[in-house]
Amino acid sequence: MSNPVAPEPLVRLLGLCKTFGAQCALDQVSLDIYPGEGVALLGANGAGKSTLVRILSGALAADAGELWVDGQRQRFTSPLSARRVGIVAVHQSLDDAIAPGLSVAENLLLDELGQPDADFLLNRKSLLHRAEAIAAGLGLDLPLQYPVERLGRADRQLLVLARAFALQPRLLILDEPTAALPEADAERLLGLIDSQRARGVAILYISQRLSDLQRVTNRAIVLQDGRLTGDLNTRHLPSAAYTLFGDIAENPSVAPDQALPVPFLERFTRAGFIRNRAEGRAVQAQVAGLGSSVAPADVLPSGKTERT
C-alpha cells in the first residue's frame, strides 16, 4: 500500500527577519499555512504580530528570509502584489477601509474601482447588479443603495469582510474582526468566515476572544520577542493563553456606532455613486490611502518605530 502524499503548504515562510533600528521585530520566523486551515496568531504587545502581518500582506519587506506561495518564491512590493497571489488582510480599524461619501455598493467594489483601468462610467443599474451578485454569493443582505455612512458598525464590518471575499482570497488575515461587536453580530460574521474556510480559504486570525479562536482555528502559533516560540493545537489554547497573556476577556467592551466622516467626497450626492471621470480619479486617490493597503508601522514621538 502506498503512503499518503503530504499536502503542500499554501504559504511557507523561511527564516523571516525584520529590524527597526536596534530593535529586532522578527527573528528567524519559519511557518507553513495550509489551504483551509485556521491559524491563530498569538503574542503580547510588541511580540511581532503586526510586523509579520505587514510582511505577509505586502505592506512591508523583510530584511532576510523567504516567502513562498504555492511553491513559488514571492517578493511583494505592495499589498496589491500580495493580493494578486491571493493574500488579503482585513485590519482592525474599520473606518480606514471605507470610503465615506460613496454608496454601500461602491464600497463593496472599491478595490476594483481603485484600479487604474477601472470603468467609472458604469451605469448605476450595472454597478448594483454586480454588487448584488457578490452579496448574494456570500449570503449577505446589505442595503447596497444606501450611503455607507448609514451602516451600523456590525454591517460595516460585514461590508469590509465581503469586500475582502470578493477578491477571492486564498489566505485571509483577520485582525480582531469581532472585538467591537455584540455577540449576535459576531456570530453572523463568524458564520461567514466558516463558509470561506469550508471552501478552502486559509485564515490567519488575531483575537483576544478565546471563543473566536476555538471556533475559527485549529492551530495556534505564538510569537514572543519576535521569535516563534509555540505551535499548539487550539484545544489546548485556554490554559496556554492564560499563562502567556494573562486574563483574556471573553466579552470585550462594545464600541458604540460612530458617524463616518466625509473628508473628500462632500461634493458627491449623499447617495454616493461616481458620476464622472474626475470623481473617479478622486476615488482612486482615496483608495490608495485606505486601510486595505495596510497602514505603515506606528512611529513613536522620538522617531523610533514601535514594534508590535
UniProtKB/TrEMBL annotation:
Gene3D superfamilies (alphabetical): P-loop containing nucleotide triphosphate hydrolases
CDD domains recorded: ABC_Carb_Monos_I (cd03216)
Domain ABC transporter stretches: 11-250
Pfam families, A to Z: ABC_tran (PF00005)
GO MF: ATP binding; ATP hydrolysis activity
Record keyword rRNA-binding present: no
Keyword Transport carried by entry: yes
Keywords attached to this entry: ATP-binding, Nucleotide-binding, Repeat, Sugar transport, Transport
PANTHER family registered for this protein in UniProt: CARBOHYDRATE TRANSPORT ATP-BINDING PROTEIN MG119-RELATED, GALACTOFURANOSE TRANSPORTER ATP-BINDING PROTEIN YTFR
Protein's UniProt name: Simple sugar transport system ATP-binding protein
Organism: Pseudomonas extremaustralis
